[in-house]
């Protein structure tokens, strides 16, 4: 079995942490038990490009239990947990190509290694695997059954490919399932972003001016958690509806040129590029903290920061302090990469339970339905969302009411009025 990992001696630590996460993923566990019996993925090779975390490890084990062969590479050079990679390769016999801190060439060579292992289905987070397949393996596109995509930024890239007529096979936007974005993006990113900031800096959020760029599903979560810890939250948006939502939540909303002057902590989570540039950094107070929780490391314009600085130093693990020509300092978290994954462990298993139940369902759905699907981006049917939500509630010991026949009839009719 081929694999490329950093350190085999971390295997035991990885096994323990993967099992720990598994205990908080009861929905995925029940899917695994079902797949073990039914083998719905028998004969299917899945090339996966996901953050190599304990939760992903449990997804890989579920797919394998369902009969699939899998190969895993990282979807970000800084999110790989080397102990998890070691455990997957050495204990669970899953080919993994991932090393924490891999340079760009190694990162892409790992993507190629995963693709070369096989790819009836692609499972992506950010669409780097899919774009490599489309650029470098064009002749193989027809053989791919379909793909799944985990995050907002990946879905945006794939929809752009479909619009340009270059998407080679159908893809399911797992991100767009309600049991994914309403929970993973909001509560997962909300908590784990704060976790990343705290682990890296030990900063007191309370009393700070905390600037959130982007009030989407992730931004809403980050703002809520920062506010809950006593920060004065400032939201920067370009969408008037989202800006209005932030105002109604009680946050200050202002353009970034103003927010730059008063913030203590700045977190970008827009999925867009060049949100914090030299122009804003010039205005910032001394010793501010800046970080990004959006998918790619393009939200903070690092070129500008490098250019404005006379020196930089790793002052704590995952904190680079830039000394500016003006004499002020800016502290950059996790090199501008996803702060929750580079400075902490990513989302808690409890929330990834649903995202990865969606992923497992999407893979099986493709094996059944892909021949009827076009080369477009699809969402999973709402029944699957409902089923996962019900299962999650059940594992939490929570019951809900059911509509009566009369209520169902009423809700589907127009006859009854005042
Ligand atoms: N850190 C994580 O673990 C994690 C988890 C899920 C998603 N993501 C990533 O986070 C990013 C955001 O995802 P989301 O689901 O919240 O997306 P979203 O589309 O719901 O929200 C993005 C928001 O950013 C705003 N925006 C865009 N350009 C802007 C600009 N120039 N200035 C200010 N605001 C701007 C948009 O108006 C929108 O409201 C994506 O890159 C996504 O892939 C990260």
What does this structure look like?
- This protein has 418 residues and is of the alpha/beta class.
- It has 17 helices and 15 strands.
- The strands form 2 sheets. It has an 8-stranded mixed sheet with strand order 9-8-7-10-11-14-13-12, sandwiched between helices.
- Helix 2 runs parallel beside helix 15 (349-369), helix 5 (104-117) packs across helix 6 and helix 15 packs antiparallel against helix 16 (382-395).
- The radius of gyration is 22 Å and the shape is globular.
- The model has no long low-confidence stretch (mean pLDDT 97).
- Residues 151-153, 181, 185, 189, 213-219, 236-239, 242, 269-272, 275, 293-295, 338, 340 line the site of nicotinamide-adenine-dinucleotide.
Task: Write the topology of this structure.
Blueprint: H1 11-23, H2 26-38, E1 45-49, H3 54-65, E2 69-73, H4 82-90, E3 96-97, H5 104-117, E4 121-124, H6 128-136, E5 146-149, H7 152-163, E6 171-173, H8 178-201, E7 209-213, H9 217-228, E8 232-236, H10 240-248, E9 252-253, H11 256-262, E10 265-268, H12 278-283, E11 288-292, H13 302-308, E12 309-316, E13 319-324, E14 329-333, H14 339-342, H15 349-369, E15 377-378, H16 382-395, H17 405-411
Helix pairs in contact: 1-3, 1-4, 2-3, 2-15, 3-15, 5-6, 8-9, 8-15, 15-16
The structure holds nicotinamide-adenine-dinucleotide (NAD).
Nicotinamide-adenine-dinucleotide binds next to helix 7, helix 8 and helix 9.
